[in-house]
Amino acid sequence: MDWIVVLIVGALIGWVASLIMKTDGQQGAIANILIGIFGAALGRWLFGDMLKLGGAQVAGAFSVTGLLWGILGAALLIAILKALKVLR
Hints:
Elements: H1 2-20, H2 29-50, H3 64-83
Helix pairs in contact: 1-2, 1-3, 2-3
């Protein structure tokens, strides 16, 4: 059951981040899920562990602050992928 929640939250985070970064047309559902999951992990690591910003430890969790940190991390991941020309 936990994997289903991870996939749903990852899809939500990836989809919102792709709307913000204007890459929604070129990403499919699988890419949204992967970017959401890895982006939330990136957000937690960068903002929570490295920068010690309060509340970033919940990135990717199904709460308002967790979703916001996850979306921020996923948007950062999309920006990195755009810079590497993986996404246009």
